[in-house]
Amino acid sequence: MTTIVSINDLTYAYPPVEPEADPAPVLQGVSLSLERGACLVLLGPTGAGKSTLCLSLNGTIPHLLGGTFSGSVSIAGLDTLGTKPGELSHAVGLVFQDPESQLFTMSVADEVAFGPEGLALPSHEIEERVQESLATLGIAHLCERSPLELSGGEQQRVALAAALALRPQVLVLDEPTASLDPLGKRSVLEAIKQLRDQMGMTILWVTQDIDAVPHLADRVAVLVDGRIVLEGVPSHVLQQRNSLERWGLRAPQILDLAARFNEHWGTNYAWLTVDKAQQALEQRMTERRG
Amino acid sequence: MAFVFASFALLLLNDQPLLMLGYLLATHAVLRTAGIPWSRIGWLWRRMWAVSLTILLLWPLFYAVGEPVLIEWWRIRVTLPSLLEGLTSALRVDALAFAVFVLLVSTDQTRLVQGLVKLGLPFEWGLSIAIALRYLPLLDGTYQTITDAQRARGWSPERSTLFERARAYVPTLVALVIAALRLSDSLTRALAARGFRPGHPRTSRRPLHMQRGDWFALAVSVVLLATAILLRYVEL
Amino acid sequence: MADAALELLNCSYHYPGGVRALEGVTCLVERGSWTALVGQNGSGKSTLAKLCNGLLRPQEGQVRVMGDPVGDRSVGDMARHVGYLFQNPDHQLFASTVRDEIKFGLRNLGFAPADREERLREALTAFGLDAYVDHPPAVLGFGLRRQVTLASLFALRPPVLILDEPTTGLDWGRATLVLERLRALQLRGHTIVFITHQMALVADWADRVLVLHRGQLLADGHPGSIFARTDVMEQASLAPPPITELAQRLSHIGLPSDATNVDALLRSYIALLPQAEEEAS
Description:
Oligomer: heterotrimer
Largest interface: A-C, 44 and 40 residues
Number of helices of chain A: 12
Distance between the termini of chain B: 29 Å
Number of strands of chain B: 2
């Protein structure tokens, strides 16, 4: 297992709004690592610093936004402090929550081509990458359409394709489903699953959509007030009901049910999906009745 | 692109009202052939008529020269030549507007920006223009939502004086400016995430190559330009 | 009807471009109830909501608020009776302090100065904004900005509150705080209309849910029973909360299929187990 993302003791404060002010650090001593091909879900209350952490992964912090930065972030061997953001974008793709403000061209193809064009690749290679990325996301048929006409789910798929066109090693997704309706959410979650399973993409995924997490996460980390307070496998982290509540989060319903079941009957269940829960509950009922 | 520049040259170097009129008729013909509905043409006229009329009326009042004098009343003198000049200027402005209109209507946004960049505009400027065009509808929608939201809080800008009315719009406009600033912040991050490096050389997925149609248009433009220059000097 | 807060009678609306947003919708929202409006984007939820305070006028049908037709009363006038919270807090924040932002609505509706102060205080405390009263709303974090717009609406205390996705983008803790404040208002007699995509929320907080699909009202009833109707849910492309889905799948062993939260399902399950099992644990 190779570690592809390595965050070490990262402490960061945004530049002060008033010249004399000394703003509190948004991230305090964050250390986190991500293995190649794994999907790490980052949870945390609003304002915990999750978006700040995402921006630290592609060099926007500290290069574009300034501020006070200490510690280190390294992606596929590249140190973000020492590498220009332009070069980091080959390694890290970042997709944001709002489709409207991250799709800025008038055609899907142009949108996906924007990244490769910036790499000054020959136009036939650009076209190749565009077709490849669109096919991976299952949106080749949207090639000539304007992003303005698409549904939320389709727009986020375009955003994912645009990030993929740079052939990154890691995809960072900052609440990509938050602005979408249920169909859109489902569409994007399927896309994420596909990217992880079929492409072996390494993913850092920030979300508030807790019920979707057990299906997709290999590991879960919780960020509160700029610190990582808990990290581990989903079945462990997401059953810490009391802690999660204290931090302003809730457990996924099915895992929560498993936890309560365990409390009641002393069992050791950790159902990640409705299927698993159904099987276990049916079996138990049959045993008891039979 | 070249077409527009040639047109500009033609229109600016000349003083014949009939030429302006002819040009206007020509552009309308082009637009109609391209399938542009009258409603869109009307859209431009609605914005132009006030300007044109103003020019037409004010020109003779300020530049009364020559004979014959049509109206003489107190200190106002309106002469036929200056009336014609006013007409020419008004029509020229309209013709120029329509020349640009033809360009915008016939070119897709990407091509437009590419064309400008090929002519030497830095890519960043071209991108800014392209992005501005793309986000205009969004900001319009945002403004609509903002006025709705403020109305839902009891805001009624209908006031007695113009001044009070303008003041009443401040909350809406401030909210719009803040929203626009937030948008630009998000866009910066999105551009950075796609590896945008200002100043670095870029290639294009659809490079702008001169095709047969383009050569033809260029030829037409050259002819127009030549005619313009000839007419000017023949006049003299 | 005396106890209807909102009434839509065969309302249809189409946007200037021709998009038909609502077709022949008839529904009634009772005073003091909490109604959730659900459906995909484009199903007509926001359109329906905007008919209730005059932001949009139906081409067909009639809208009544507290028994009186909306007619051609202006939105500003309607603001006294129907409060509307827009989805994006950044589409209204403009003031240089949180205090001024909240007072904006109060001034517009003509409340007396002493009244304004009292309402301001109450709103600030209800939404945990006391510490931020002199801060510019625009520089606060998203969660706080959302709380400011909620506080601004809360201060007006309109009898009917329509909220367009007020908890989207908030963590569960903050969302719960907001929901509790709204519940407190409901207990004081206010009517809550809540647009959301989060079914778990609907299950736990709403008395009734209206399901919209392509401009038509597909279903209208108690969340538990609506979620159990798989035909409706599928047509509207909605999925019940995972716990309800589990309950539905276990209905063949006798579990009621309208369980909407973890406790309910667990209790039902325990009740189904043979008695001996229960005594043993």
